[in-house]
């Protein structure tokens, strides 16, 4: 007879009580009650993140429509999920989810930048997590492929709204109407 071993999942409250080594340069997320260790972002990741954040911040500030945040910042989606997206946008109409502890609720837009070790997590696990929690728009940025995909939540499922590579195109946002980003500017060396 086989025995089943139950693995106890951590709650966000338990996760927040953990102490990590101060010399560890990793970040930690809680996804479906399991701790996920993330390495510090590469310089390429940082360049792309900085450029996207700059474009979003400029647009959001000019339009006075909300706030843009970047990692590391805790986003508490529910009792078992505390994530740290690369970049996120919270509209002014939902500003109450911005607290001293982090973002306690669902951002309208989330950007994840794929690293060699995070591909499956960003493309599958986090995409489904964001979809289930109602993140209205999800940008998936792949530095190696020089590709950005923008997914829009439609009837509780993500559909591809916009996609572009460094060679061709611009992406658009449904959450931030009027925002158009030339992909070439994000991946330039």
From TrEMBL:
GO terms for molecular function: endonuclease activity. Pfam families: Uma2. Residues 13-183 form the Putative restriction endonuclease domain. It comes from the Bacteria. Keywords: Endonuclease, Hydrolase, Nuclease. Gene3D superfamilies: tt1808, chain A (3.90.1570.10). This is Uma2 family endonuclease.
